[in-house]
Design brief:
This protein is mainly alpha-helical. The chain has eight helices and three strands; from the N terminus they run αβααββααααα. It has helices at about 5-10, 20-30, 35-50, 70-80, 95-105, 110-135, 140-170, 180-190, and strands at about 15, 55, 65-70. The protein is elongated and about 75 Å long.
Length: about 190
């Protein structure tokens, strides 16, 4: 998550001070991602150093020092909002790595590992669903965060189900020889051999 850009977005609405930025950030993100006020001020110092925000020149450093976005900051924010994140290569995912490691370990039941994680994810989905039912209509930011998390968790559960099925089929039949296209796919996605 880009705290830097979230603060620029908040400052694009008008001048604010650090504590106010922290409170508004947490309120807008459904209070799911707590933000340390020290992190806010460190980020503001960097933004000021980079010419993306200005502070009140006459104010003493502290909680009432106001900040406002500069023209360069507005351009930075606009560029960030319109630039898709780089998703060309898959991120390192601890669960994927656990399954890949478990497949090769002797004496480890990879299906049991998968089911343990699947049960945990389903429990998390139930917790998020309860939160959505209790508070989702009250806070748009929270509702959007909950929806995103439910979709993310559901996709991980689907991947676990697919992986479990693939591993069960692989145990019954020998793997096919690698296709000649595999090296090209690996290079294009950043996967090394």
């Amino acid at each position: 998550m880009s705290i830097r850009h979230a603060l620029l977005a908040l400052l694009s609405e008008g001048p604010k001070y650090g504590l106010q930025l922290r409170e508004e950030f947490e309120a807008r993100t459904g209070e799911v991602w707590p933000l340390n006020v020290g992190q806010v001020y460190t980020t503001l110092q960097r933004l000021e150093r980079d010419g993306l925000v200005q502070s009140d020149d006459d104010a003493e450093p502290g909680p009432q020092r106001g900040f406002r976005i500069t023209a360069e900051g507005t351009q930075e924010l606009d560029g960030w909002l319109r630039t898709p994140p780089n998703l060309e290569s898959p991120p390192r995912d601890e669960l994927v790595i656990k399954v890949l490691v478990a497949v090769r370990l002797h004496g480890v039941d990879v299906h049991e590992v998968i089911q343990t994680h699947r049960r945990y994810l389903v429990e998390l989905m139930q917790q998020w669903t309860r939160l959505k039912e209790e508070e989702g209509d009250l806070d748009l930011g929270l509702a959007l965060v909950v929806d995103a998390e439910l979709y993310r968790l559901d996709s991980v559960v689907q991947w676990l189900d697919t992986a479990d099925g693939r591993l069960k089929r692989a145990a019954l039949e020998p793997p096919p020889p690698p296709s000649p296209a595999t090296p090209q796919i690996r290079r294009r996605t950043g996967v090394r051999r």
